[in-house]
Amino acid sequence: MTRLFTTLFLAILLTACSQKPVLTDLLQKGMDIHYDVNVLQRLYGRDIYVDPWIKKPYIVKMAYEVDREKKWSKTTRALVLPAQYNNPAEVAIPLTWTKGKLTFDCASMGKGRLMVQLLSHKKKMTLGEYTLSTVPFKTIAIAIEKNYSDAVLILNFQSDSEDYAYCFVANAMIKHTDNTTIPNVVFISVDALRADAVHCIVPEYAITPNMDALAKDGAAFVNHCVVANWTRPSTIAMLSSVYGSTTGVNIYYFQVSNQEKKYFYTQSGVVPLPVLFKHHDYITRSIGNNAFILDHSGVGVDVGFDDMSEYERQWEDTVDIASEVEQWLADNKDKPFFLFVNFNAPHNAYIPPAQYLEPLRKSIKGVHPWFRRYLGEVAYTDDYIGRIIAVLKSLKLYDNTIIVVTTDHGEVFHEAHSHSPYTDKKSIFTHGQTLFDEEMHVPLIIKLPEKQFTTAVSVPYQVRNIDIAPTVCELAGIPIPQSYQGISLLPYIEGSEHGDRPVYCEGRLMYGVRADGYKYVEKFYGFGVKPYHWGGQQVSEYHELYDLQKDPDELYNIAGIDDEKVSAMKKKLYALRFKQPGNVLYAKKNVTGSIAVKEGYFYTVESEGVVQQANRQSCRFKLQKGQRLIFSTIPARTQYFITTDGVVVLLGYGGIALPKHGNEYIFDTTNPLLQQTIKSDAIAAFPDAIIAWCAPGKSGLQKVSEAVTVSSQMNDLLKQWGYIQNDGTH
Predict the structure, then answer these.
(1) Which of 352, 374, 322 is closest to 197 using CA atoms?
(2) Does the N-terminal or the C-terminal CB of the chain have fewer CB atoms within 10 Å?
(3) What is the bridge-based pairing of β-strands 184-190 and 89-94?
(4) What is the dihedral sign for C-alpha 454, 460, 465, 470?
């Protein structure tokens, strides 16, 4: 099978006044397909898989290599037609408007012929017949001169041999005059971009004239922070407005299991901006270097783009990415679009072209040579952002385009932060190992649509990258999904909101809160690396507290000095941190006993009665009649064991006695019967006993039992980018 890396989609447009991608709607209603979809099963693998957001067997994501020298691959959403000789595949797609120029991308695996026909009540017209034999895709364009009411587009694919051949059809549309005024979106993420590297955020080095100019047409958020300290969870946060801990995808190691993907796509409720904007008639595209948003990479999840281009060169990719962006904008200027651009520079390794580094040798003194090289890559990327903006202006797209420039995290350069007390790894010249502001405090610039706001704004208040997605939605006039955990930033831009928003941030073996001028960080084993992800009954504790007003560089940990402030910040952290589903013990009579979890540990324990926690995995309780013990665990769905002073423990749903092992009742929260809401009148009907149940809903942090490995190619890439250190650790 041809090596693949891409995402395919058929987008046929309907009416003369709007450009509506038809296939998404048709798939919900069903369309006339003549072939056995079971044949497709032999295709599915890492490089061809069912689109996880549409969940129809004939709509796939297909990945393939385009240019080996440029390390350029693509992922495309496509309709797939499997056919055998004398057993063609055919699909009929109803249209309500036809006049215009029909274009689509087409490819095949195996030789075959594709016939395109237009059927109306008046006539049947063959629009074209094409011989196909290879991937990658080629573009086919067909002029349709007249309107035909109640027209149906017929795609008929015939294999040239007895073996199955597969035709892939992507990005189909009918071009026509479009008077739409909905704004476009260009979302630019510059990997590892520190706040102090961008002059309009922290006036320091004056090396970002293009980002600075962009801020004059919108808003610069000078105290903006990420909610995760490495690429995958932070990218999902800024595109989906959710914390990594709610997605079902781990935030402690790179590999992503099928179990995690299934939860992400089907149970988490995550709605990435590309999925949302596709449902509102935009075409969606990603061009960049970010393997963490590629399902087939082994380290990422699909976030819903129609098409994705992935580049993997260390510094040349900046040129490659910008060049493709410029061409793509020219080709798609007449359609409403959501374009995500991900530059990898200034990510480690810091190797800017000489013309960007040499001027800094003279103008920037007294810094580490690697930091100067880092700044050279920032200047390099800023130049190419400027070129993209120039193309938007030349195509007359700039005024009606929302432009976001931000990053997924910063980068550590201070010698005092060279070693992580959480992961026990080197943290200098990298990221993902600490929650210092070098990693958390990053730029955010939002260029606003024309006439929506007329005055540039510099927002001094603390905001979060989970606030970006709802802001983009509000600017585009798209309803904000209920799953979004952030809040639109427009009140700051309009001047109606003042004051900081508290920042809760997650990382490997740590989480923390930045609020009221302080930063508090605590070692947390839920985001750990095996075998330290749960830690057993006893663990080594560690926490940090910094007064950011007096100590902005975070050099003096006062956690052992100011106990009162530690207690106050711990309460803020625990109020903001993610929630796990609760389990309940309800006493129908006075009872004492103990409860223990054999795998994982107690995350929260609350009670109206008396509870004494012996360690992380066991506690004793004393409940009066009518009192409850409510607790959550990590992992979320596990077994725990209850012993009592003779009071029977009953399963809340149905009043069935729990199984016993010796003196212990076994409570298995993975049992679906336990995940039922228990009504008060049902509780009253139970005999005197302890009633046990668990709250229904999402699974939260869970155990991943599936072993996952990544390809040697991806492993080498992670090493190349500094994600995997020389000793093999993350």
Answers:
(1) 374
(2) N
(3) unpaired
(4) negative
Q: Does domain 22-175 have CATH number 2.60.120.510?
A: yes
Report d(CA 180, CA 579) in Å as an integer. Answer: 42
> Quick one: pLDDT band at residue 31, thresholds 50, 70, 90?
low
The answer to whether domain 185-196+213-354+367-499 and domain 583-694 are alike in fold is: no
H or E element in which residue 324 lies: helix 317-331
Residue 343 CA to residue 357 CA, distance in Å, equals 18
CA distance 341 to 274: 13
401 residue type, one letter: T
Architecture of domain 505-576: 2-Layer Sandwich (3.30)
Distances (CA, A) of 496 to 230, 456, 457: 32, 15, 13
Q: CA distances (Å), 7 to each of 91, 480, 511, in order?
A: 20, 26, 35
Give this prediction's pTM.
Answer: 0.93
Q: Is domain 583-694 in CATH 2.60.40, yes or no?
A: yes
Token pair for 583: 């389990």
Render pLDDT for 144-164 as a digit per residue (tens, 0 to 9): 877 776 788 889 999 998 888
**Is the model's pLDDT at 29 over the cut of 50?**
no
Q: What is the DSSP letter of 262?
A: H
Instruction: Determine the Cα–Cα distance for residues 63 and 713; give it in Å rounded to an integer.
Output: 15
Write the pLDDT tens digit of every residue in 552-563.
Answer: 999 999 999 999
Nearest to 570 by CA among 524, 611, 617: 524
Within the chain, what is the greatest distance between any pair of CA atoms? 86
Confidence of residue 728 (pLDDT cuts 50, 70, 90): very low
Instruction: Please name the amino acid found at residue 133.
Output: S
pLDDT for the residue 11:
35
Residue 21 has pLDDT above 70, yes or no: no
- Give the closest residue to 578 by CA, choosing from 618, 524, 639, 515: 524
Residue with tokens 């700039």: 398
> Each residue of 547-595: pLDDT tens digit?
999 999 999 999 999 999 999 999 999 999 999 999 999 999 999 999 9
Per-residue tokens: 710: 């990544």
CATH class belonging to 185-196+213-354+367-499: alpha beta
Task: Write down the number of H helices and E strands in the chain.
Answer: 14, 35
Domain parsing of the chain, residue ranges:
22-175, 185-196+213-354+367-499, 505-576, 583-694
In this structure, the dihedral spanned by the alpha carbons of residues 314, 318, 321 and 327, taken in order and rounded to 10 degrees, is -150
Q: What average pLDDT is seen over the chain?
A: 89
Place of tokens 């790894």: 425
pLDDT tens-digit map of 329-371: 999 998 899 999 999 999 888 999 999 999 999 999 999 999 9
